[in-house]
Input
Amino acid sequence: MFNLTQLATSLRHTNCVLCEANTRSSVGICKDCWQTLPWQSNHCCPQCGLSTQGSICGSCLSDPPSFDRTHALFTYAYPIDALLQAFKYQHQLHLGHLFAQVSLKQFHPMGIDSIVAMPMHPARLQHRGFNQSIELAKSIAKHWQLPLATQHCQRIKNTPPQASLPLKDRVKNIKGAFRCDSYFEGKRVAVVDDVMTSGASLNELANTLKQAGAIEVSCWIIARTY
Ligand SMILES: [Zn+2]
Ligand SMILES: [Zn+2]
Output
């Protein structure tokens, strides 16, 4: 049902967050800018999201990750990188709204039983005051009326940020960082995260979810780096 508040919101003019042109778009990006965004192409590995001709990549064939699928909205490039940084470090919540709106258009909840966000260690959360992945996951879970299983999936090791480490150290750094409970038994889970780089964190989380009984894990990512 379309109510008056929704109508008012949909008719409200805003300025495009990228070029400041007037726009009626509900996501806050004008048509022209929308078309120039670095959208992730369909030609990528369905399991890890790396660029291929659309087939499973060599590394997923030889050493399959614990997650089964990856859906990334964008390639981590301008202006998405700048918008994500502003959302993450300057807590610009309207950008969270923007990414959530785009996610709702692109991620499909078919066959998903539960949503989790990439968890942050409580000490880090206290320092940062904000977990961008939870903000995104909340909007997505609410929209699709799917349970957000935050309390069943925790980060128990306060590891150095993955971005601060060379790729070869990331797997070791994240090992044993998560704990998931039996809530996930028999469930198909979507993990929401903002950026996927080496995939080491998502792989470790997917592995922990599967050990807790999850039967399928999909990664829902805003931007994929290469
Ligand atoms: Zn624009
Ligand atoms: Zn792959």
